[in-house]
Automatic annotation (TrEMBL):
Sequence intervals crossing the membrane: none
UniProt keyword list: Cell outer membrane, Ion transport, Iron, Iron transport, Membrane, Receptor, Signal, TonB box, Transmembrane, Transmembrane beta strand, Transport
SUPFAM superfamilies (alphabetical): Carboxypeptidase regulatory domain-like, Porins
Source taxonomy: Bacteria, Pseudomonadati, Bacteroidota, Sphingobacteriia, Sphingobacteriales
InterPro entries in alphabetical order: Beta-barrel_TonB, Beta-barrel_TonB_sf, CarboxyPept-like_regulatory, Plug_dom, Plug_dom_sf, TonB-dep_rcpt-like, TonB_rcpt_CS
Keyword Heme: no
Domain TonB-dependent receptor-like beta-barrel as annotated: residue spans: 306-755
Signal sequence, renumbered to the chain: 1-19
PROSITE patterns listed in its UniProt record: TONB_DEPENDENT_REC_2 (PS01156), TONB_DEPENDENT_REC_3 (PS52016)
Protein source organism: Mucilaginibacter yixingensis
UniProt entry tagged with the keyword Nucleotide-binding: no
Protein name (record): Iron complex outermembrane receptor protein
Amino acid sequence: MKNFFAGILALLLPYAASAQLSVSGKVTDNVTHYALPGATVSIKGKSIQTQTDQKGNYRLNLPEAGKYTFVITYIGYNTGEINQQVAGSIRLSFSISSNTTVTEEVTVHGTRAGANSPTTYTNINKGDIQKNNTGRGFEYLLEQTPSAVVSSNAGAGVGYTSIRIRGSDATRTNVTVNGVPMNDAEDQGVYFVDIPDLASSVDNIQVQRGVGTSTNGAGAFGASINIQTTTRHDTAYAQLDNSAGSYGTIKNSVSVGTGLLGDHFTFDGRLSRINSDGYIERSASQLKSYFLSGAYYNQGTVLRLNVFSGYEKTGQAWDGVSEDMINAGNRRYNELGYIDARGTYYNNQTDNYWQNFAQLLLNQKITSDLSFSGALHYTRGYGYYEEYQNDQTLADYGITPQTVGGTTITNSDLVRRLWLSNYFYGATYNLNYHPSNKIDATLGGAYNEYRGDHYNNIEWTQQTTNIPPDYEYSRDRGVKKDFNVFARADFHAGNFLFYGDMQYRHINYSFLGFDRDLRNVQQDVQLNFFNPKAGITYQLNDQNNIYASFAVGHHEPNRSDYTNSSPASRPKPETLLDWELGYRTKQTWITAGINAFYMKYKNQLILTGSLDDVGEAIRTNVDDSYRAGLEADARIKFCDGFNWALTASVSRNRVKNFHQFLYNDATGNMDETAYNTTNLAYSPGFIGSSSLNFLPFKGAEFSFISRYITRQYLDNTSTVSRSLPEYFVSDVRLNYNFKIKGIKNIGVGLLVNNVFSKAYSSDGATYPGIYSGQLNNYNYFFTQAPRNFLASLSLRF
């Protein structure tokens, strides 16, 4: 390995030495003459660009003498273009004018990290999104970012998909769309299957790892994913996107936009559908969505209304494939399709959900130094999953047993629907004060309210029960009110950037739970969190900086943590102390970063195998656990037609003094085993990715993409028999874009997943217990498809 990297370095040194021509200078405001830090200076038609430092200085290395067009862009300013003949190293400064029209980047400015922030983050632009948007789940757009592990329940990328970042699942990952929180208020997960093909309406994404900056919604314990949707298009367009491939997967999407009408208005729309049979048996998906957006632009004002919706119907593949089935040679067998009375699988064992969103976004420039962004949002969700249940005790459903022919019917097969109907609404705001290049301050916050009804119906019983249609046997309501306010500032002093961030968050959650007498009663909790953050960045020169930060995060328990506990056993909120230290460089031939992190948890909630006082499996607070590691990512440009993007994460993820409880059928008790230090579940010690990209001619790109994930344990005992083996998987992606008369762009693509047909599982679960004196693991795995493909065709008019 050392020889390999030494060889790579030897190859790169001549290239680096050949870049002798340099252009340097300063970018300033043409009225105030303030320097503009973070402005982008690029060469038109070339993949050469850099950003100015905190003093507005930049430096570009050019491969050869010639005439170049320099392009200067900065948020809130008109784009500048200058043609310049370069025969040798020169100094060239630019002065650009403020744009009276506010740009929509202000919408997400309050919850995002800036170019030189002491925060560990990755940006994904629209070009990278489009290359990877073939119809698979949204999480696959993030698969090549550091410390990310992506999985598909159905095994082929369509339907329920998931992501873990630094070992943390979606319930610990804060997700916002245009600054509006997307995590479910009660279980705190994010289900992108409910808004299929969102990627087709996304302009850019920022992934922050660790606690990150203050944001709206659930606390970030592993990462934050900040999504910005469609922004301004000045010219009219129409676009057709189609994909088709293995396992009956097909995607159709049509997008249209008016461009700028009368210098003030734009309208954009999209309609999509995605269908797939899935790799796992009975895991088919039928997905639909639309996205509508209208905007008004005036001097200093942008007002945008987004209305979007999604519908999903999927087979229930969320229990994966049992280890016994995999060992028997069937990696696709879904045991969740219960046998009905006729001895066949119940064909409507499905999950069904509708979700509708509305966002009213306002960006307002108040003065030259002060701007405002705010949002009113409303989400309506409703749906159910239907399942066949064998031999159920009717008394458990509140049904009075019937006597037929002298026989009392106490049990029956039945079909039930478990419903969720909820409303989520609120407001977010940010005031940004930027009087000079030395100070950038933000005051922001949000108030959100959630109301969710959980109710369950019986649709059919095999035996006579004399119940009405849609018999409702249970109902409860959860109400959650979430308020936060934060203040954040960047202060530049010489080569230093100082960062401070303080957030106060209050939560009031009312829910149905068990009291000390094991009766279901309405309860509530009041939580108050203070989350301070601080950091410093030192600019070594125009291309290099180092940063360090410390942040505190808090995270409330989920709905099930509360409803499965009494006040005596109620879980505590989790606390995270996050230290980050990093180095970033941005050269003409390489963009790279490396960072170290140490995430110290207090009262982290983990499954132990124990049961609560009403017999339900619970998560328990553990006093001491941590994650520590190194992350690196780089994009190396060997020449104009060849580059290499790669990431690597090495981490140690441990829980101290862990106690596991296993049910023993011989005694009816829980057997306890104590562990001094073990691995945290779902936390591989190494995660790596690689993308070798070859551009043989204009518009064409060939990519060889690989991922390597080491062993993941399914519980917190470091037991190899309850783990996911390591895997190395490679894909091939081909893209070619060209245009002909009458069509602005034709994009043809081919994605071959798992090109070497590696048999692997990317996720799983375990339910160990002691039966007849023997330990049984009862492992279930989310097996992923062997070699499969998706071909795509895009037409833009």
